[in-house]
Design brief:
single chain, 343 residues, alpha+beta, FAS1 domain, 2 domains, four-stranded mixed β-sheet, 16 helices, 15 strands, elongated, disordered N terminus
């Protein structure tokens, strides 16, 4: 797929060069070629004078990084390049080449080319840029950050994550902003890339399973969500990224059998339902490999769940046949018991 982007880039560079004067370059409106350092030694003195666009070009040509990002920028609407090379102040979350390679390998871009590819690149790239120069301390202090495409990206300061991407390098300064490096490409919710992925939300998947004509599951989980505060359903149906540990119907029935209340009484106790449900959800898209590599996970209620391989809180098992169920806004793992938060 990167070959397609490079072919697109080559065409744009040829056309741009033909349209430019001797003084102009296709890289940025405010930039000129002699401001891109010819060597790493020159770069040490002039990094602060580079625009974000120039820094990406330098890293791609000198350090063999951000090559795919450069291809994407040059393949997108020229306004993206003008922004990154302009006079404003911006924060850019820059995916590595490995991040783009993983996206290409997923097949999400298969069959997208020409104008559709350019429009897609524009939308995706604008979802990596926000107004203002925010250093790492400012970024990680936020819960979310608004991107130039109008959507918000979720920030997890404790985990140093933006949506489901890890922030791996911080505070690369440029004349017109700051770059933070991330290990995954951020995907806006309405992009054509998402069209090649599961467009159902976590709530959609729970409801579909509960309504299945045969082998219905999550009927009690759905009932609990319906009876809980509306904000919980909104979260599971929204644009954030979350991981849900979903108890089966058998898990709920086992819990009810242990409690001195009926199912009806449980569903009528909204504060209890809220506490229990929030203790099954964490921020970020954590696949099974991510979960099992941890020793604990902070849940949305603020409490932590201990992790020992596929066992949560020493007694709740993750069903290996029900892991990594992907939704547009996260991932579901099926568990065989209800997690009970500290009371």
């Amino acid at each position: 797929m990167r070959g397609i982007l490079k072919f697109t880039t080559l065409g744009i560079l040829v056309l741009s060069a033909a349209a430019c004067s001797d003084e102009a370059t296709p890289f940025a409106l405010e930039a000129n070629q002699d401001r891109i350092p010819a060597s790493k030694e020159d770069a040490a003195q002039s990094m602060a004078d580079m625009t974000i666009a120039e820094r990406v070009v330098f890293e791609a040509t000198e350090n063999d990084e951000f090559e795919a990002l450069l291809d994407a920028v040059l393949g997108a609407d020229p306004a993206v390049l003008e922004t990154l090379g302009g006079r404003g102040q911006f924060t850019v979350f820059a995916p590595t080449d490995d991040a783009f390679d993983a996206l290409f390998a997923s097949g999400a871009l298969d069959g997208i080319e020409g104008e559709a590819l350019s429009a897609l690149l524009t939308e995706v790239l604008l979802y990596h840029v926000s107004k203002g120069a925010n250093d790492a301390s400012e970024v990680l202090a936020k819960d979310q950050i608004r991107m130039l495409n109008g959507e918000f990206a979720r920030i997890d300061g404790a985990m140093a994550m933006i949506n489901d991407a890890n922030i791996t390098m911080i505070d690369i300064e440029a004349k017109n902003g700051i770059i933070h490096v991330i290990d995954a490409v951020l995907l806006p919710s309405g992009s054509p890339i998402q069209g090649n992925k599961n467009q159902s939300t976590i709530l959609d998947l729970v409801e579909a399973s509960a309504a299945a004509a045969a082998g219905a599951e999550f009927t009690l989980l759905k009932a609990a969500i319906d009876a809980a505060s509306p904000e919980i359903a909104e979260t599971l149906d929204g644009n954030g990224q979350f991981t849900v540990f979903a108890p089966t119907d058998a898990a709920f029935l086992a819990l009810i059998a242990e409690l001195p209340i009926t199912a009806e009484e449980l569903l009528a106790n909204q504060p209890l339902l809220d506490a229990v449900l929030l203790y099954h959800v964490t921020r970020g898209r954590l696949y099974a490999a991510d979960v099992t590599s941890k020793t604990q996970i902070r849940m949305l209620d603020g409490n932590r769940v201990s992790v020992d391989g596929t066992v949560l809180n020493d007694k709740v098992n993750i069903d290996l046949a029900g892991i990594d169920i992907e939704a547009r806004n996260g991932v579901i793992h099926i568990i065989d018991a209800v997690l009970l938060p500290p009371m």
